[in-house]
Each structure stands twice: as structure tokens, then as C-alpha cells.
Amino acid sequence: MQQKTSLIQFFQKNNIDIIFLLLIGVVGTFTQEKINPIFIFSLMIVQGFIMFRKKEKIHFKTTTYFWLLLALYALNIVGMLYTQDVSRGFNTITRQISFVLFPIFYTVYRVKNIDFLLKAFVISIFGFIVIFETHTLYRFFYKSDIFPLDLELFFSYRYTGAELTKVFEMHNSYFGMYIIFAHVIILDYIRKATKNYLIILLVLLLVVQSLFLFQTVAKTAIVLNAIIISTSLIYFLVKSRSFKILGFSLLLICITGWFATQHLNLPLSRISDRLTELLEGEDSDRITRARIWKAAIPVIKENYLIGSGTGDVKRFLHAEFEKNNIPLRSNVHNQYLDYLMRFGVLGLALFLTIFGYSLFQAIKTNNYIYFCFTIIIMICCFTENILSRQWGITFYAAFNYLLYFQYPKK
């Protein structure tokens, strides 16, 4: 009975209700493609039921940005008017429904403890890192058929990249994106922290998770993570005049960099190869991003104003792949080119306007977390179609309008 009372008091103190618990379930299960939709569906159903019961108390408040987000989703519906592959187009519409559901949800439900929600996300990411690393260590020590068991073997392709996250079949690029955002939240804690021991513990957590990120071989995430952590730590610690902790942090970063150069050869060589590919451009003999992007140009030129429609992009793109001897059946690996192919320059302009609005709001309100969140999404959109997969769609939709609309102004 006493434990039950303590739990109720904890919920009341932290403004936790059934809706908030379901929202925590959403942000804590981004990695789970089958479980995450269940939480989203439950969240919307329960909130809809509560709205129906208390319809006289509903305060539906919108913003210009809200309507821009809905307009971005409406492009998919408009694109159905001139698409031929209706089935694929319908799949796109249903997959991206979160772009509409979450903005509507946040206009009627006030998240009273955003910090608690962000902490839950950080804890969930750390929990998945522990699970992935533990499973990998188990395979390394008890399932390996290669000896000796040394660091070189552990950091080889057999235990890194997609192999590292195979226990849940999680795409390492998307999980790398989650890790970076968790690091942004941790850096914000460092900015606010007043006790040195807490700052040191948080810096150590950044280092440990960054080493795991190296193991994922998520190239864009590794580079972006290094930039965000180094620049943010230097700025925050210099501003707070914590020079001793800054020295300690820089020493840790140097040690981490040295360890990576000595033992993490695979991710470093992959990053080097990606840079070489970009320099070689379309003339490379390998299947590079530049060759894939070049194949999209004829599709864009064919319907540059309004695009090819919601469902026809893959068919046209794969036809260009065959013409250019690219043996792939994937997407264009660039969200900007994807919008340009689907909805033309008008659709791309709307897409870029949304990012511009996000950055303007983040700078205006001194919202470090939202600014970095937007930068992460924008950079990742250059190398992946992150808003074409559930892993990216729900991550962006669940946090974007919340950070824009409800995060406290400073």
C-alpha cells in the first residue's frame, strides 16, 4: 500500500499520466519496428477517447509551422493524382501518417515534463547500447569460430556495423542518429550542471557511447557526432570557465581518437572511402552516392516542377539504375533528391522551408536541443532517405513539433 502511494506521488510530482506513459513508450521503442506502431496507435486512441469525453475542455491551438507540416504531408495526397503506382503511393501515405498525427496530438495535449521525456529517451538509447554490446560480446566469446580472440577480431566486420545491432535487426545509420540526439541531450545537461563530478560522469558517458557509435560504422553519424561533441563541450565549458574539466574532456577526446586510429580501422577506412568516393564523383568505378544521385537527374528533369508523383519514383529510378549499370534496387539515399523527384521544385521548396522555420525558431528561443535536432536531420537527409522509413519518420515526427511548439522559451 505504501509503495502504491509512493508511486502515485511520483507520478503526480512529475506530471505523469497515462498519455505521458504511452508517449514515453513511443520515444523508447524507435528501434522496434513492430512494437513502436502499437504505442503510437494506443497513444492516439487513448487521447482521442479522452478528447471525446472532455470535448468542452479542448484547446486546439495551431501555428504557421503546424500548417506547413500538414502541407508537407498533403503533398503525398496531391501526388496521388498523377501517380501510376497507386499501391506504392498508398503505402507511402500510410507510412508517413505520423507527420500528421503528432502535430495534431501536441496541439491538444500539453507535455508538462519534457525534460523527463528526454531523459527517458537517453536512458532507452543507453539500454539498447548495453543490449547490443552484451549480445556482441556473447557472440564474440562463446560463438566465435576464429582464434585468437583479440581486439582486431572484435572490431572487424564480423562484430561491427549491421552485425552489431543484428539482435533487433536495427539499421545502424538510424541508430547512429538516435545516439547523436541522445548526446545532444547529455550535452545540454552538461551545460546546466553545477557539480563537477556530474559533468565528468556525463563526459565519460559521451565517450563510451561514441566508441559504440564507431562500432556501428555509421559514417555520417560518426563525423557529425565528433563535430557536435567537440564544439559544444568547448563552448559550454569555456563559457562556464570550467577550464580543468575542459582539459580533462579534451584529454579524453584525444585518447578516444588515438584508440580509434589504433583499433577501429574498419569504420575509419569506411569514412576514408566515402570521402574518396565523393571526390571521385560520378567517374568512380564503384557504386558511389555520386553515381546514384546522378541517376536521379533524368527523373528530376522529366517532371521538374511537380515531380513524378507519390508512388512512381522507385520505378523510374530503378530504370535509370539499369541504364547506368548500377545493380541496386534501393532508394536514392538522399531525402532532398527524393522530394525533388516526387514533388518537384515546389515540394523541395516546402521541405526546405520547414527546416528554415525550425532553425529560426531554435535560434529565436535559444533552444540548443531543437537547433541540434534539426541540424542532425538535415545532415542525415544528405546520405539517407530517413523520412521514408519508420525508424526515421516516427523519430522526426515525435520530437520535431514538440520541441518547436512546447519546449520552454529562454
UniProtKB/TrEMBL annotation:
<feature type="transmembrane region" description="Helical">
    <location>
        <begin position="35"/>
        <end position="52"/>
    </location>
</feature>
<keyword id="KW-1133">Transmembrane helix</keyword>
<keyword id="KW-0472">Membrane</keyword>
<feature type="transmembrane region" description="Helical">
    <location>
        <begin position="173"/>
        <end position="190"/>
    </location>
</feature>
<feature type="transmembrane region" description="Helical">
    <location>
        <begin position="245"/>
        <end position="264"/>
    </location>
</feature>
<protein>
    <recommendedName>
        <fullName>O-antigen ligase-related domain-containing protein</fullName>
    </recommendedName>
</protein>
<feature type="transmembrane region" description="Helical">
    <location>
        <begin position="367"/>
        <end position="385"/>
    </location>
</feature>
<dbReference type="InterPro" id="IPR051533">
    <property type="entry name" value="WaaL-like"/>
</dbReference>
<feature type="transmembrane region" description="Helical">
    <location>
        <begin position="89"/>
        <end position="109"/>
    </location>
</feature>
<feature type="transmembrane region" description="Helical">
    <location>
        <begin position="64"/>
        <end position="83"/>
    </location>
</feature>
<feature type="transmembrane region" description="Helical">
    <location>
        <begin position="339"/>
        <end position="360"/>
    </location>
</feature>
<dbReference type="GO" id="GO:0016020">
    <property type="term" value="C:membrane"/>
</dbReference>
<feature type="transmembrane region" description="Helical">
    <location>
        <begin position="391"/>
        <end position="407"/>
    </location>
</feature>
<feature type="transmembrane region" description="Helical">
    <location>
        <begin position="12"/>
        <end position="29"/>
    </location>
</feature>
<dbReference type="Pfam" id="PF04932">
    <property type="entry name" value="Wzy_C"/>
</dbReference>
<feature type="transmembrane region" description="Helical">
    <location>
        <begin position="116"/>
        <end position="138"/>
    </location>
</feature>
<keyword id="KW-0812">Transmembrane</keyword>
<feature type="transmembrane region" description="Helical">
    <location>
        <begin position="197"/>
        <end position="214"/>
    </location>
</feature>
<feature type="domain" description="O-antigen ligase-related">
    <location>
        <begin position="205"/>
        <end position="352"/>
    </location>
</feature>
<dbReference type="InterPro" id="IPR007016">
    <property type="entry name" value="O-antigen_ligase-rel_domated"/>
</dbReference>
<feature type="transmembrane region" description="Helical">
    <location>
        <begin position="220"/>
        <end position="238"/>
    </location>
</feature>
